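Journal club side-thread
Mid-discussion, someone asked how the predicted structure for our own chain would compare to the paper's figures. Pasting it here so we can look after the session.
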Amino acid sequence: MADTWVETGPGFWNIRGSLRLAGVFDVGTQMSAVRMASGRFTLLDSYSPDAGTLARLLELTDGGKAVDSILNLHPFHTLHVARLVELFPNAKLYGTERHVTRFPHFRWEATRTDSTELGALFADDLRFSVPRGVDFVPENERLHFASVLAFHPGSGTLHVDDTLTWINLPLVGGLRFHPTLPGVLQQRPRAVSEFRGWLKELRGLFEEVRTFCPAHMKTLPPKDAELPRLLDGAIDKIEKILDRHERKYR
């Protein structure tokens, strides 16, 4: 299936591509292109675009020369890192410690994408949020909950990998936290308290979000006023998990 290209607002383009599980079921994946105040571009996450998407991306970025940086935001999303480095070799490359470990031969910037320092570097254009009270890189590599959420105030767009999901199905679908949450909550007192503190910040952020771009599935969630309500519904669905964990690790 061909990639889709969605302009979510001024200066923000979300590219939705294919990711096939076992070579069959396409769960989708994404990358976003952000035009910064400087006029140069930042790519959020790595993806191998199809020919049409690559042509459009190169046209947008002066043949790729205007791509200033690539931010890899999910520690377990690594399939397309090498391809994007090949396409944009002069872009500054940022990632989590796991990205650096998996690709030590690339020229990584010293600042990690899950660090507080990243926010200062991109403060004119992007704001970042990292879940607290959870293992960012758990030993079990099948637990893909944690990622860095990237918000572009200029377009009101929030780019998210796995931490929040969207499934366009009645009853079982909608906005949800990734189902691996129980496996990544840290096994210590105050972990849930820290996670709830992050949820409170996320609620505040969603008051500004007009478009939400999750990593998987082809469609995007509804826009604008519905998003805070949908987030509240997603939080309600994990309350029992949080309460149970908090009681266990008092």
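Post-session note: The mean pLDDT is 91.
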